[in-house]
């Protein structure tokens, strides 16, 4: 069981100072709007890669009126206990320490994995391809932390190619060099995405029938399609190099790069109706998303290649009817990683019984309510 058994916040959002002592059971946070529930989930999400569940700047998360930056500390109880501290005071970066010793974000990614679902993701099936790509890439990063670095290399090369293209006059040797870097990072991204898509689909298919509908997932992108067919690195690399090369004239006309993994979409079919997820009802989409996130958590736990993920579910319980809520709690109770849930009222978590711990959140303070 992977769980946080202690969490301390200093000058983080509306918390001047708070320490929570927890056990491994799911954590239910309840309290009125604006109390600081999502802020607590955001604090937990800082222990994962990236900027956390609000994609906020480090400085935004510092408590207003606080003299310096924020700090977080947690005890992670897995096979063994480790302590993790994050500190931003006086720096523009998170400083990571594991058991007191300086550590890198990569070290952290080996110890703790986090998956989340927030109300901001509700429109993901109806929104644009970039929203779905970001949603999916975050799941890929939870499985394969190196995906983030490949994506960063890709974005850098893409910006260089776009700058070249905007000038309208492309030096072929220069473009060849940039496109080779783009194709190298793009191939790695496509392979990562294909690996995670397959693992996710297997986990979805193995899920119980019933409360959360199943999804059929496809990646719409030439490189990912090749990766899903099992093509090797070289073949996908060549495919991308050809696509960038032959697309130069078209891209100069458009003023930007029109093909490549930065355009890939995640197509999601709502299996019970065989229709695109974006056409399902709001409630069906929410249930589908919860199913996807649960499948992702199961796939991460099953992989055996790292710790089970903590699962952060912001305002998920309120949207479900009592039966579905109870079914969700049953699943969360047996996951390999601790779940964190928020809701405005304690009664939303009744069906957990004593299988969860409850915390009352109230304007920058939080107290265990048993
Ligand atoms: N940097 C900050 N410093 C102080 N308070 C903050 C900061 N950022 C957000 N807040 C406050 O946190 C509250 C929102 O907390 P949130 O966790 O989103 O509430 P909820 O319990 O509804 O999820 C708001 O009152 C907001 O003013
Ligand atoms: Mg909230």
UniProtKB/TrEMBL annotation:
Keywords: ATP-binding, Cytoplasm, DNA damage, DNA repair, DNA replication, DNA-binding, Nucleotide-binding, SOS response. ATP binds at residues 31-38. GO terms for cellular component: cytoplasm. Its main location: cytoplasm. Signal peptide: none annotated. Residues 4-330 form the RecF/RecN/SMC N-terminal domain. InterPro entries: DNA-binding_RecF, P-loop_NTPase, RecF/RecN/SMC_N, RecF_2. GO terms for molecular function: ATP binding; single-stranded DNA binding. The keyword Oxidoreductase does not apply. One of its GO terms (biological process) is DNA synthesis involved in DNA repair. Gene3D superfamilies: P-loop containing nucleotide triphosphate hydrolases, RecF/RecN/SMC, N-terminal domain. It comes from the Bacteria. It is found in: Cytoplasm. NCBIfam families: recf. The RecF protein is involved in DNA metabolism; it is required for DNA replication and normal SOS inducibility. RecF binds preferentially to single-stranded, linear DNA. It also seems to bind ATP. Belongs to the RecF family. HAMAP family: RecF (MF_00365). This is DNA replication and repair protein RecF. It comes from Hyphomonas hirschiana VP5.
């Amino acid at each position: 069981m992977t769980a946080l058994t202690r969490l301390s916040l200093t000058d983080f959002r509306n918390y001047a100072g708070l320490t929570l002592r927890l056990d491994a059971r799911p954590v239910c946070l309840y309290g009125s709007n604006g109390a600081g529930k999502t802020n607590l989930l955001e604090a937990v999400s800082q222990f994962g890669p990236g900027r956390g569940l609000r994609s906020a700047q480090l400085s935004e998360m510092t408590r207003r009126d606080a003299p310096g930056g924020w700090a977080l500390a947690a005890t992670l109880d897995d096979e063994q206990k480790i302590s993790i501290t994050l500190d931003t005071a006086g720096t523009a970066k998170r400083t990571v320490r594991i058991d007191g010793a300086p550590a890198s974000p990569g070290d952290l990614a080996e110890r703790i994995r986090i998956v989340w679902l927030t109300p901001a993701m509700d429109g993901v099936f109806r929104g644009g391809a970039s929203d779905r790509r970001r949603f999916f890439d975050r799941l890929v990063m939870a499985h394969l932390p190196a995906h983030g670095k490949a994506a960063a290399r890709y974005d850098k090369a893409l910006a260089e190619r776009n700058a070249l293209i905007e000038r309208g006059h492309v030096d072929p040797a220069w473009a060849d060099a940039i496109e080779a870097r783009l194709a190298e990072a793009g191939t790695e991204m496509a392979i990562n995405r294909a690996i995670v898509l397959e693992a996710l689909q297997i986990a979805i298919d193995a899920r119980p029938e019933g409360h959360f509908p199943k999804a059929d997932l496809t990646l719409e992108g030439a490189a990912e399609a090749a990766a899903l067919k099992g093509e090797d690195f070289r073949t996908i690399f060549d495919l991308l190099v050809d696509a960038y090369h032959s697309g130069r004239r078209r891209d100069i006309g458009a003023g930007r790069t029109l093909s490549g993994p930065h355009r890939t979409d995640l197509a999601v079919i709502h299996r019970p109706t065989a229709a695109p997820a974006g056409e399902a009802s709001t409630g069906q989409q929410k249930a589908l998303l919860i199913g996807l996130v649960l499948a992702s958590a199961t796939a991460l736990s099953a992989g055996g290649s790292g710790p089970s993920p903590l699962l952060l579910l912001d305002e998920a319980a309120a949207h479900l009817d009592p039966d579905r809520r109870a079914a969700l709690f049953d699943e969360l109770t047996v996951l390999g990683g601790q779940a964190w849930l928020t809701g405005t009222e304690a009664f939303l978590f009744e069906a957990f019984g004593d299988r969860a711990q409850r915390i009352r959140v109230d304007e920058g303070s939080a107290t265990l309510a048993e």
